[in-house]
């Protein structure tokens, strides 16, 4: 069954309002963003999840989204807001991913790949390519590129997340990328037993098509479940239902 991550939450009240839904992860943005939170704000939301855990109820895992943070920044935030997952959205090295594993045992590390015009890239200065004409089967060139790009991260991350490249923030643009690019990543992740998440412009109305066509291990949404920049409970509910009910009917 595909996992669901709702990203960009900012208030404990919104966290409480969605706990009845089968959401697997909630994300807090520490990277530069209009949805950016402080460690104090994240700690209050994590307390809500801790209350659920203490009561023996299921709850989402917490994900902190970072872009090129320093080790001291991560340490300070983790002391106040103990996250379950650290998601790297910048040009973080495999060594930094390993440092997180060593420093915070049990914490997952996710590495984001920003897709530029359909072409795989871990940075904004990689080559761009027109995705038109790509088939459902990745080419040898695409597979080789993904392998060279991600192999250094193979043993130091728990998941890869694809997002649309944004020149200002790196991701979180609310725009889709050419989904044909997914197939090469999917092949690589499957071969090395890593989970693959997809973000970028997902909505209640298009997530079903993504799942039907590519069936990633998880989906990540933020602006697609907002109204006028504010998280919308109805849209969140419809998004989660589209993912979870589709999985049930397909199974």
UniProtKB/TrEMBL annotation:
It comes from Paenibacillus baimaensis. This is N-(5'-phosphoribosyl)anthranilate isomerase. GO terms for molecular function: isomerase activity. InterPro entries: Aldolase_TIM, PRAI_dom, RibuloseP-bd_barrel, TrpF_fam. It holds the Pfam family PRAI. Its EC number is 5.3.1.24. The keyword Amino-acid biosynthesis applies. Keywords: Amino-acid biosynthesis, Aromatic amino acid biosynthesis, Isomerase, Tryptophan biosynthesis. The gene is trpF. The keyword Isomerase applies.
